[in-house]
């Protein structure tokens, strides 16, 4: 077997294509041939970089979720005010457009696979810990700035991420008729109740 090429651009293209196919068809509905066709390549080219279907689809799941996390961090880069940061993070999770909806569909597939496969469960814990810590860090920042009420930042982050997940599932599966705006209202209500500040309200907490 020939050694794999060091071709990061083509590898990324395959991962992006595989993630899009997972969002469209589900994990079990994607074949190596589908990924190759989406990239305008042969199945042999895919096997040149990945040993098989499970390897590339697992890598694609991780790639898609890491891209979403990177997008979140990039959006916060120039924001110092914790209310603005938390409001921005929440807005970024709302399935308003096809890109974010696709990310949530990938998450649904990831959760299902992680429940069955220990190797993915470990990846899930690793990635999710980073997401919770991003929320907790934002809460601590707001507490230090005096715009959020004192409290257990880690516990608040755990509950808020669970609410984000559950509300997003309701939206993408059609359970929530009011869609993304209802999701934001729910999350903003939790933030105001727990942290004492309305998202977008510049009034500091006493």
Walk me through what this model shows.
The structure is a single chain. The chain has 206 residues and is an all-alpha fold. It has 2 domains: 60 residues, Homeodomain-like (Arc Repressor Mutant, subunit A, Orthogonal Bundle); 124 residues, Tetracycline Repressor, domain 2 (Orthogonal Bundle). It is elongated. The termini are far apart. The relative contact order is 0.11. The N terminus is likely disordered.
Distance between the termini: 68 Å
Q: Quick check: average pLDDT? A: 88
**CATH topology (fold) name of the largest domain:** Tetracycline Repressor, domain 2
CATH class of the largest domain: Mainly Alpha
- Sequence of secondary-structure elements: HHHHHHHHH
| Tally of contiguous helical segments | 9
Multimer state: single chain
Low-confidence stretches: 1-6
Percent range of helical residues: over 70%
Structural class based on helices, strands and sheet pairing: mainly alpha
Count the domains: 2
Major beta sheet summary:
none
CATH architecture of the largest domain: Orthogonal Bundle
């Amino acid at each position: 077997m020939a050694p794999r090429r060091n071709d990061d651009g083509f590898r990324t293209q395959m991962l992006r294509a595989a993630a899009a196919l997972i969002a469209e068809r589900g994990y079990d509905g994607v074949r190596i041939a589908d990924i190759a066709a989406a990239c305008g390549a042969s199945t042999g080219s895919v096997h040149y970089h990945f040993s098989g279907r499970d390897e590339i689809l697992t890598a694609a799941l991780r790639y898609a979720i890491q891209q979403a996390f990177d997008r979140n961090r990039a959006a916060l880069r120039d924001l110092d005010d914790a209310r603005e940061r938390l409001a921005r993070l929440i807005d970024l999770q709302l399935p308003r457009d096809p890109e974010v909806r696709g990310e949530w569909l990938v998450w649904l597939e990831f959760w299902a696979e992680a429940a069955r496969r220990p190797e993915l469960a470990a990846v899930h814990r690793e990635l999710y810990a980073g997401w919770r810590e991003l929320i907790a860090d934002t809460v601590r920042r707001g507490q230090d700035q005096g715009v959020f009420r004192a409290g257990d930042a880690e516990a608040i982050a755990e509950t808020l991420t669970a609410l984000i997940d559950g509300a997003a599932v309701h939206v993408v599966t059609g359970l929530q008729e009011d869609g993304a705006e209802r999701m934001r209202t729910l999350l903003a209500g939790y933030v105001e109740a727990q942290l004492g500040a309305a998202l977008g309200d510049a009034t500091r907490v006493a």
